[in-house]
Automatic annotation (TrEMBL):
Molecular function GO labels: class I DNA-(apurinic or apyrimidinic site) endonuclease activity; oxidized purine nucleobase lesion DNA N-glycosylase activity
Cofactor details (free text): Binds 1 zinc ion per subunit.
Protein name in UniProt: Formamidopyrimidine-DNA glycosylase
PANTHER family: FORMAMIDOPYRIMIDINE-DNA GLYCOSYLASE
Reaction catalyzed: 2'-deoxyribonucleotide-(2'-deoxyribose 5'-phosphate)-2'-deoxyribonucleotide-DNA = a 3'-end 2'-deoxyribonucleotide-(2,3-dehydro-2,3-deoxyribose 5'-phosphate)-DNA + a 5'-end 5'-phospho-2'-deoxyribonucleoside-DNA + H(+); Hydrolysis of DNA containing ring-opened 7-methylguanine residues, releasing 2,6-diamino-4-hydroxy-5-(N-methyl)formamidopyrimidine
Its biological purpose: Involved in base excision repair of DNA damaged by oxidation or by mutagenic agents. Acts as DNA glycosylase that recognizes and removes damaged bases. Has a preference for oxidized purines, such as 7,8-dihydro-8-oxoguanine (8-oxoG). Has AP (apurinic/apyrimidinic) lyase activity and introduces nicks in the DNA strand. Cleaves the DNA backbone by beta-delta elimination to generate a single-strand break at the site of the removed base with both 3'- and 5'-phosphates.
PROSITE patterns registered for this protein in UniProt: FPG_CAT (PS51068), ZF_FPG_1 (PS01242), ZF_FPG_2 (PS51066)
GN (gene name): mutM
List of residues binding DNA: H91, R110, R152
InterPro entries per record: DNA_glyclase_Znf_dom_DNA_BS, FPG_cat, FPG_Glyclase, FPG_N, H2TH_FPG, Ribosomal_uS13-like_H2TH, Znf_DNA_glyclase/AP_lyase, Znf_FPG/IleRS
Formamidopyrimidine-DNA glycosylase catalytic domain ranges (all copies): 2-113
Active site positions: P2 (schiff-base intermediate with dna), E3 (proton donor), K58 (proton donor), R261 (proton donor)
Amino acid sequence: MPELPEVETTRRGIASHIEGAEIKSVIIRQPRLRWPIPADLAQMLEGRKILSLSRRAKYLLFSFEHGTLIIHLGMSGNLRVLTEAFPAEKHDHFDLILSNGKRLRYRDPRRFGACLWQAAENGPHPLLQKLGPEPLSEQFNTDHLLSANSNRKIAIKLAIMDNHTVVGVGNIYASESLFRAKINPNRAANSLNPQESAQLVAAIKATLGDAIIAGGSTLRDYVDSDGKAGYFQLSAFVYGRAGMPCRICNSEIKQIRQGQRSTFYCPHCQH
């Protein structure tokens, strides 16, 4: 599943191609995603200018004067900027045709993504209203993490994957951040002291920052596609390395299940 670094990589990759461009037309081939694409989306967007492209958690926000187009990539979605009208393939569900001669194409084999519209007069979309702070923002700090976890006995890995605590720390980056902070993923969230909380905040910021620079762990956006995507494999310390030696101490990396997801950690380095 695309996580925050992948979504941010996508945003950075396509922003310069679409910001300031007017939408000439909208082609919807498959409206049935996680939620149906609004039937009047073309009417809402045609002739309108994309003012900016931002990100909130894993949502991409296309800002217009009269509202916001919200796109979530789901488990298998991606956005590509095309400079020619390449024939659509089976899982290419919609195109935004732009005034600058380019088109933005959404592809999603599993159709768990979303394309939603929120009118400006209705305020923020309900999906965005209760989200925690962005992990790379000043609002996500030691005091916030201590306060959010003060009464929580759940495992710290599950706590930092909770979007009410902080957004965008998915499964891969939770394991990697806890390793960098030297914190065992089984620890109760409320057991972390201020120093450990500060270490974890710093580790989350560093891990996500490094992943964004590297292009994410599972995908990279691309322009003028020939159907082949570029992929970057994160040089993980622990994720996906069960049974292999720790890169720091040479102990065997362990794998457990937490919240129906795989967790990887080093029992020697993480306490």
